[in-house]
Design the sequence.
């Protein structure tokens, strides 16, 4: 909704794609149960300012199995790319196809999936696609939990503890911005230590990365991105925030 509103404020025509992409789901993932409510999506998209909604079936997009795949190297080798092999190839392939169908435009993506945003930016640049990529801030509940379709999997008890991921990211942010810690490993330890206090979570990863390359820097001497992914019951949650060292480090 926030992406649609942003686009409606900046563009003459807003088109929304509503498509659960099979190419980015592994056989063991939740493709068959992923939350879908097309009538409600249409209503919400219209309220937010969309003029068109494109909701194809897989058969309409792929009349025969795709023989072409788009792979972005480097940026996909870590975090979600390491945990979910092949995921970003599926993302890049469908987004390249949608960009081809759309033609010159702006495309709006949320920073909650920051790695995806970086991959799409690089793909668009490398392939000289006539698309301007616009990143938009993560939208959160009042207690800090990042909005996500998969939040619907959470039980009331799990929902109550889910914001701990955000608080653990904030622990890393404080280590950088208030503690003046420049060792990425120590910042990761601050995040994982905070998460360890809640045994409900199964941590997939915690990482400190350069926002452009997504590689862990040798030392934090500029803005970095803090990432985390963990399982909580049926839900797999991901989140990230920015952090930057103080201009005048502690003595």
Sequence:
């Amino acid at each position: 909704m926030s992406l649609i509103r942003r686009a409606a404020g900046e563009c003459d025509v807003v088109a929304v794609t509503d498509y659960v992409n099979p190419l980015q789901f592994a056989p063991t993932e939740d493709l068959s149960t992923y939350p879908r409510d097309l009538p409600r999506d249409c209503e919400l998209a219209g309220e937010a300012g969309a003029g068109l909604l494109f909701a194809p079936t897989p058969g309409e997009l792929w009349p025969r199995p795709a023989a072409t795949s788009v792979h972005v190297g480097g940026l996909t080798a870590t975090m979600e790319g390491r945990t979910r092999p092949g995921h970003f190839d599926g993302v890049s392939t469908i987004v390249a196809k949608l960009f081809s169908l759309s033609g010159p435009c702006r495309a709006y993506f949320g920073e909650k999936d920051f790695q995806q945003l970086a991959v799409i930016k690089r793909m668009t640049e490398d392939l000289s696609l006539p698309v301007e990529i616009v990143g938009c801030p993560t939208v959160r509940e009042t207690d800090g939990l990042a909005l996500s379709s998969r939040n619907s999997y959470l039980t009331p008890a799990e929902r109550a503890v889910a914001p701990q991921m955000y608080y653990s990211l904030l622990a890393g942010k404080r280590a950088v911005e208030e503690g003046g810690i420049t060792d990425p490993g120590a910042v990761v330890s601050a995040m994982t230590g905070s998460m360890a206090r809640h045994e409900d979570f199964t941590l997939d990863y915690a990482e400190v990365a350069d926002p452009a390359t997504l590689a862990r820097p040798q030392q934090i001497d500029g803005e970095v991105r803090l990432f985390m992914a963990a399982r909580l019951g049926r839900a797999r949650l991901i989140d990230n925030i920015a952090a930057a060292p103080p201009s005048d480090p502690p003595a």
The mean pLDDT is 94. The CA atoms of residues 65 and 234 lie 30 Å apart. The radius of gyration is 19 Å. Residues 87-102 form the longest helix (16 residues).
